[in-house]
Amino acid sequence: MRSRKTKFIFVTGGVVSSLGKGMASASMAALLENRGLDLTLVKLDPYINVDPGTMSPFQHGEVYVTDDGAETDLDLGHYERFTNAKMSRLNNFTTGRVYHSVIQKERRGEYLGKTVQVIPHITDEIKANIRAAAEGREVVLVEVGGTVGDIESLPFLEAIRQMRYDVGAGNACYVHLTLLPYIAAAGEVKTKPTQHSVMKLREIGIQPDILICRTDRPEISQEMKDKIAMFCNVEPGNVFVSPDVASIYMLPMELHRQGLDERLSEIMNIWTRGARLERWEGIVEKAMRPSKGEVKIAIVGKYVDLKEAYKSLNESLLHGGIANDVKVTLKYVDSQEVEAQGAQALLSDCHAVLVPGGFGVRGTEGKIAAVKYAREKKIPFFGICLGLQMAVIEYARHVLGLSQANSLEFDEKTPDPVVSLMESQQNVTDKGGTMRLGAYPCALKAGSLAQKLYGADLVSERHRHRFEVNNAYRNRLQEAGLVFSGVNTELNLVEMIELTDHPHFIGCQFHPEFQSKPWAAHPLFSGFIRAAQQQRDLRPA
Ligand code: GLN
Hints:
By secondary structure, this protein is α/β, with parallel strands linked by helices. It is built from 19 helices and 23 strands.
């Protein structure tokens, strides 16, 4: 059976959260993929929400959307950006989803009268989910969310413990991430938390094969690594460090330099070519030492304090910088501040303005003011999802003269709902998983800026929204000069807008940031950064 030969790498974390487990998993996957292996990644999240789609960005950060419309953890974004693996609803599971499915089976009588228990029923469900994602792959990296020692993680850890016996010892490898804190008063890096974290893992029957220790120190001595190996019962050569890096795209090369992919291959007995990392070297070179100066981009949004909420967006803008050999500096502007101080005061030091996706009325007037500023001053503008909706409202109000135009999301009584609820959404009451989600085709208008940037007539992009441009206003907006440069012909929906009397004004109803890679910037992002560069050269801020 093919699936029995799949090699499993289980990644856990200890001591503290936010160690960069997702990044380490993505980096290991990148290295193994570069050795020619066909792999995928799975993220297990130990919370009760069925998926993160209903969680606030303040709680959870970005919700990453896959082609098949799953609302997933933001780590899946790292996985897709670092590898060629395609993520789907098979690649992310929460405790809630596992229980939901087990309880549904119980109601259908599928357990034939048995008492349904955490072991074996929940753990079997977890293992079945992992195996479904693993089907046909040579390697699967399974990242367990949370921290060892949390009550919530236990069923996941128990499931991955069992899997070693299911798949055979040589086909499974456990990688544990920990922290080596530096205690300034003692002038020392401490290994005790790492020892305790591994002890906790071993208590539940998992002996890690490899340790990756996060540290803010540039060097960890061999002596220290040997001490960790001895106390944690791992081989001396199996202790690696993950130092702070100036760019996340340096991490695969850093781990390769220490020989991590070599060790993983040895442990799992996989014979491959060496990793070819020219592509990563090129990315890091361009990211660290761009030769064409700097552009400053304003992101006018609501979650200014939480860069996690715009993870893919930030990365895509950096990819646009890499593609254009320019440094991209992001200025987060709180849209409520724009309401208080005016757009000019906050945006005049930037070469381009981006209004990202979002929900809820707070700050929308500031976003509309930012669009107006960019449109009138002919500053490159990029509106994504809510950003497109803001641009349509702005155009309706200030060009078409419909002064009270709005979205039904923000004003149910507006006389001119230029953005309205899709017909398919009108009777939806459940909040979870019910938006327009996942990939839809978009036909691009011949001769439009969008078509030029994509170099294609038909593209596929991912969506996550309930509201749409109201077709009842399409003719009037078009007559007033707004170009509908992308449409979904089947559903008759506006997907992209642009302006002709403006150097670069684009809005899209979808989220292009979910499909950008460091070595292949999404065309809407590389085009936007190029426009910002031209703006800078034209009129230095
Ligand atoms: N709130 C808007 C809608 O639901 C936009 C959503 C978004 O930006 N992702 O249509």
